[in-house]
Amino acid sequence: MAFNHKKSIAYMALKNNGQKPVLDLLSLLPFRPGGQNMPYMKMICKAGKTKEIAKFYTYWLQPKGLKRRPRVNPTTEQQRKINDRHLVKRLTRLLNANFNGDCWYVTFSYRKEDRPQDVKTLQKHEQKLLRDLRKVYKKEKLVLKYIWTAEVGKRGGTHIHMVLSPIDARKLRNIWPYGYTTLKPMEDNGQYRRLAEYFIKYFQKTRDTDEQIQKKSYNPSKNLLRPIPVKRPMKGNRFSREIKVPAGWYLDKDSLREGFTADGYEFIYYTLIKEGG
After folding, report:
1. 235-271, pLDDT tens digit by residue?
2. What pLDDT shows up at residue 277?
3. Domain range for 101
4. Which residues, listed in sequence order, are joined to residue 56 by a DSSP beta bridge?
5. Residue 88 falls inside a structural domain
6. pTM for this prediction
7. Which of 46, 94, 248, 252 has the smallest number of Cβ neighbours within 10 A?
C-alpha cells in the first residue's frame, strides 16, 4: 500500500496549527470494517493431526444491514461453564500438538490407608513423582513431556492423572509407592478432546471438594508446543455454512458447533482431522 503523506502525523500537525492531531485510524486500514468486501473473521488453529476452523462476525466485521442478537449476560454458573469450555479447548490443543499413539495415559491411585491427610502432603507426593519421572526418562535418554491433574473426591478417593511421552511401560511400574498404577496407550487418531474433557472434570471434582487442593486445572511441562490460533478478515458477502473437507482429512462431527456468541454475533466452529499419519 503506497504511503500517503496526507495521513502522516507531521502533515496533520501542521494542518491543525501544531495542535495534537486526531488520527482517523480506520482510514489507515486496508479495508473498511463493516464493509461489504471483508465482512467476517476466520480462525484456524493447527495442532498435531487436527485443524480447528471458526468463522464468525464481530462488531467491526459483519455484512451490511446484519442485526446482531441482544447481548447475553451469563449467570455466575453459566460463566463458569463457559470458562471450563475454554479450558477444554486449550487443553485439547496442547494434547493434540504434543502426544500421539506412542504415548501413555497413566493414573496413579492411592491405597486407602496411604491417602494424604492434607494438601501439603499431596503436593509433596506430586513433586516427588515428577522428580522420579525425570530421573527415569533421563536414564533412558528420553525427553519427558507431561500434562497432569489431580482428582480428589469428597469421600477422600485420590488419583493423579497424567499423560506421558513415550517410554517402556515397565519402567513406570514401580515408580509409585502409595498404591497402584494404571497405564493405557493413547489412541492414534490425534484428537484428544474427550481426554481433555475428562481432565477438566477431574479438576472440577477436586475444586468442588476443596478449592485449595489444586489451583490450576492442569499442569503441563514447560517443553510442550503451544499452538497459536491465526485470525484474519475474509472477503465475501457472508460466511458459508458449507464445510469443505479436503482430501486426506475428515470432519470430527462431535466438534461442530454453531449459533451466536454472548455478544450476539453468529458463528460456526468445527475441527478437521488428518487421516493416517
Report:
1. 777 778 889 999 999 999 999 998 887 777 788 999 9
2. 59
3. 94-220
4. 41, 267
5. no
6. 0.79
7. 248
